[in-house]
Amino acid sequence: MDITGVVAIISVFGLVPLIVFLVHRHKERQALIERGLDMSHLVGDKKCSTLQSLKYGILLIGLAIGILIGNILDAYTGLNEEVSYFSMIFLFGGLALLIFYTLAKKHKEEVK
């Protein structure tokens, strides 16, 4: 499976908007600093960033498990390579997000 083309497309369509966003954000923050305005609304909430880190961590673990199971299905069953990989990536990625949802819901109930 040659993924050079996929990586090139993701790089172009992923990195260019990211660089534009970061440059724009830097200019915006510089303008706020020069005017002496309050920047507290730009700084994220610690609790929110912890949950975001947890969400992305669980999602990446789910995607990795999906890739592993997709490889196993590709090697030991008659499934098509693309079908085995993509179905398992989406399945375990979705399960990971559901797991995060239940954990975040429990956390929210504990905080109340």
Note down, in words, how this protein is organized.
InterPro entries: DUF6249. Pfam families: DUF6249 (PF19762). The structure is a single chain. The mean pLDDT is 86. The protein contains 3 helices and no strands. Helix 2 runs antiparallel to helix 3. With 112 residues, it is mainly alpha-helical. 84% of the residues lie in helices and 0% in strands. It folds into 2 domains: 43 residues, no CATH class; 63 residues.
Q: What count of helical segments does DSSP give?
A: 3
Number of domains: 2
- Helix proportion of residues, in percent? over 70%
**Helix-and-strand structural type:** mainly alpha
Shape: flat
**Radius of gyration computed on alpha carbons:** 20 Å
Query: What kind of assembly state do the chains in view correspond to?
Result: single chain
Cα distance spanning the termini: 49 Å
**Segments where pLDDT lies below 50 for 5+ residues?**
none
Order of helices and strands: HHH
Strand percentage lies at under 5%
Mean pLDDT: 86
How many strands appear in the DSSP assignment?
0
Could you give a short account of the major beta sheet?
none
Provide a compact summary of the structure.
The protein has helices at residues 4-35, 46-76, 81-111. The protein is mainly alpha-helical and 112 residues long.
Descriptive tags:
single chain, 112 residues, mainly alpha, 3 helices, flat
Summarize the helices and strands and which ones pair or pack.
Elements: H1 4-35, H2 46-76, H3 81-111
Helix pairs in contact: 2-3
